[in-house]
Amino acid sequence: MNAIELKDLKISDNIELDFIIEELREKDFLSLSSSKAINLLSTIAKTAIGEDPSFVDSWNTLEEDQYMADGGRYRKRRHSVFQTTKQSPKPQLMPHQPHYQTEDYNQLNGGVERYFAPITPDLIESPSLMALLDFGQQIFSPMAGSNQWYIELHQFRIEARDGQKGNPTPEGVHRDGVDFVIVVMINRVNIDSGATTIYNLDNELVGEFTLLDTFDMAIVNDHKVYHGVTPITQKVAAQEAYRDVLVITYKKTS
Fold this sequence. Notes:
The protein has helices spanning about 15-25, 35-45, 55, 120-125, 125-145, and strands at about 30, 65, 75-85, 90-95, 150-160, 180-190, 190-195, 195-200, 205-210, 215-220, 225-230, 230-235, 240-250. By secondary structure, it is an alpha+beta fold. Strand 3 (about 75-85) and strand 4 (about 90-95) form a beta hairpin.
């Protein structure tokens, strides 16, 4: 089964954004190819997106996740929080704070305030990130009837090394306890698998696809579907192997 692919659409007067909203309302998830995503983000930013190597390079500065209850040392990450309000509809960076999920949503690592290193200023200030945040607002605000959001950004690097698999979703197929989730592919190096799986609330598989290229995206309604990613393995043994993604979650605050 394949997620909805947005193909052969021309950007004009938010036609693509309207199409995304319509499909997300109908299907509760979709995939977006890198070419379409880059065109959309460039239109939103009014500048070329996808030509900033420092955006991708920032994943090389991630720090090891110290909270893995499975004992794994294959995940690196950074985390920051933005917020929008009626007074400040543009996303504002919030003081650094922990990431928290209840055990209802994360049985492996939930129930603990997890303090990760903050996302670095060069990424925070990048046109690519600002366009992504704006993109999410333009999709989700009409659906939710609100433009007030608590937005969490998670940079992840999942490594496969020494013949061991890397697990992008060690908590299993899950929901995040938010309203909407965007997963943005950043880079895949020397890996196999890492397929995104989507399940409905009856635990039936309704979609499976693999994010391959930089700015390929998965977008999900976290109230309506579960999502997960299959473990990654090295293609060539003894060579560096990893999967980099940016996860952006939106939780309505009013």
